[in-house]
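lol ok so funny story. i was supposed to be doing the assay writeup but got distracted and ended up predicting the structure for this chain instead. priorities right. anyway since i did it might as well share w the group, maybe its usefull for someone
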Amino acid sequence: MINELRIGNWVEYQSQFRQVSSISVEGFTQAIGLGGINTTTVNPIPLTPEILEKCGVFQTVEGYSLNGVALIYKNNEFSFWHNGTRIIIQYLHQLQNLYFALTGEELNYQP
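and the output, tada:
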């Protein structure tokens, strides 16, 4: 999971949501900076409707949509369609990365 992270992504560390502030690589180990804390052990934040609400202005219309990024929520699972392929989005950092890739803007998540 660490190789999927970008600065600004949100992760869980010691039961708290923390924002990645730096990423460093030493040998085969990647360390994640969390505002003064460096660690190699962080957990992803599972994506839920409540987490999406904290991202700002996602609109609910047979799923969720923000600035043209549409997510389908079915059977307690979020997915995104691209070129006829269904991509499952399980974690907040995945949504943050997808949103940035498609819009060039950061997703505004407020814990």
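The CA atoms of residues 17 and 110 lie 10 Å apart. The chain is about 15% helix and 40% strand.
back to the writeup now i swear
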